[in-house]
Specification:
This protein is α/β, with parallel strands linked by helices and 533 residues long. It is built from 18 helices and 17 strands. The chain is globular.
Amino acid sequence: INAPVFHVNAEDPEMVSYITKLALDYRMRYKKDVVVDLMCYRRHGHNEADEPAVTQPLMYEAIRNLPTTRVNYAASLMKQGVITQGEVDAMVKDYRKELKDGNRVAYNILEPKNKRAWELLWADYFDVTWHDPYESAISKKHIKDLNKKLQKIPDGFEIHPRVKKIMQDRQKMADGKINADWGFAETLSYASLTENGVPIRLTGQDCGRGTFFHRNAVLHNQLANEDYTPLQHIGEKQGRVQIFDSILSEEAALGFEYGYATANPESLVIWEAQFGDFVNGAQAIIDQFISSGEAKWGRLSNLVMLLPHGLEGQGPEHSSGRLERFLQLCASHNMQVCVPSTAAQIFHLMRRQVLRKYRAPLIIMTPKSLLRNPLASSPLFRFTDEKFKVVIEERYDNIKPKKVDRVVLCSGKVFYELLTRRQDDQLNNVAILRVEQLYPFPHEALTSEIKKFTNAKDIIWCQEEPINQGAWYTSRHNFMRNLTKGQTLHVVARDLYAAPAEGSVRLHNINQSHIIEKALGIQPIDKARSVKK
């Protein structure tokens, strides 16, 4: 671990004190980790009510015959003539009296005069709701100015031809000549925030480039062993930007970033999994801290988790960010769970996380194939005139509300498969709504959109995940709440499955086609999965 380890006998209090001071001096001087290994034992086993002799009879027979550390230390001091037996007895008697009287016996604890620093730091962020207003749009001129800084690289710095093509395309996006893709939108959101002093920290496996080659926030010189991060050169008063490729140790990395995110409410701290499935290795951090830290300790966190999610035939270990687990942990607005489906949406979502006073961990199911899908790109007016939409309305194919008898609700990349098939079959009776925020659930926004289709009797929740996974079991009560009398809620999903996805591309394509066709009414829906309001 590249750190010194001091092994010390815990029955020697003076040596423990000396080694502790030495370790602190080492850390302060060399800014390095140091380990103090206390060689000791537990006199009472697991707890005071435990009986360790049941499983360790010989060891605890020896321990019972040992004098306590206090007795040994007192004997050592008396042997040196430092203290007498009478003084020892008086100290023990006084100490026990203090305990009995309920007085403090740890004399070296410092009581803060006021609230602790972290409480003061977060004081303005308690009692804020996710409905609080914010403005995340920026002007076209601002976009061009930021992109100009993102395009600037040092003289003699040779970037890879593929990266050069990406940067050339981003220039066209900033000029409004082509729609903006996900990588441009995400990077633009970071630039716009750090410009105003917001510290940004991004860690994860291959996050500098982006596992799917979409981000390229860290550029690498093809002629020398050096890199350059344009986001660190936005302005003189910008916030600190840190981008680190972390090792495949999700629990350690996510745990560190959670702690980092609790230290400053004005920062944007992001951890990205290489694939959403990899978050499995950090489940303890999610359960113990991210989802419940506020309820248990009153600790707020602004952590963002990016989990590439979507069934694309890549198998069970490269498909699911385990959306269902996060939704199962949601309560009392402890987290935000979003599935943005356009470039503009990720831009506004990232900015919303900082610009709004509401502070709660943000779990984002990010795409893989959509990073390069032209349909997921956004025109500039979506950046300059809008904000994050918790529900995206029906906006394609000039669908007439009165002709619609079926409304399909969905999240994520399955929307584009539904849209493409609807266009191929020229269906004009089906409207498709995207629920971009699954928690806190956007009841008002979804109800408003469903009510536009007065003749729709069938409301379908379509998910590509197996029915025992995804959003259905945790969110169906939310879908039901938004229906009107006489409407029927159906679910279209893969059948119950123990794994997140099939291991065969052929089987994936067959099942995916069935889901799309059932949701759009091309194949009949399983009525056993339907609930009428």
